Amino acid sequence: MSDMTKQEVTTKDNIAVFKALADPIRLEIVRYLNRLDHEVACGEIGQAMQISKTSGSYHFKILQEAGLITAHKVAREKYVTLDRSTFDHYLTHFWQNL
């Protein structure tokens, strides 16, 4: 197996970010987090989006794998926040990344 070039890694990262944002529910989760501008319990977001825990977990996992959110657990509750550095890197400088 050959090593991936920096260009290939960047392309894969770009695809992961934009694929994550292409889903209407995930895009709405990102908008919700952006409006609040602080960490939020996943359960609160699920209620606001009217999605099940299973659906929420799926969407949070994809957003986290793409680097768009960070998450941590406190007791039984998971909290998420936007990773603004990812947005700055991929979205603010979108044309430079092409």
From TrEMBL:
UniProt cross-references to PROSITE patterns, sorted A to Z: HTH_ARSR_2
Keyword vocabulary terms for this entry: DNA-binding, Transcription, Transcription regulation
Domain HTH arsR-type: 6-98
Any one GO molecular function term: DNA-binding transcription factor activity
Stated name of the protein: HTH arsR-type domain-containing protein
Organism: Levilactobacillus senmaizukei DSM 21775 = NBRC 103853
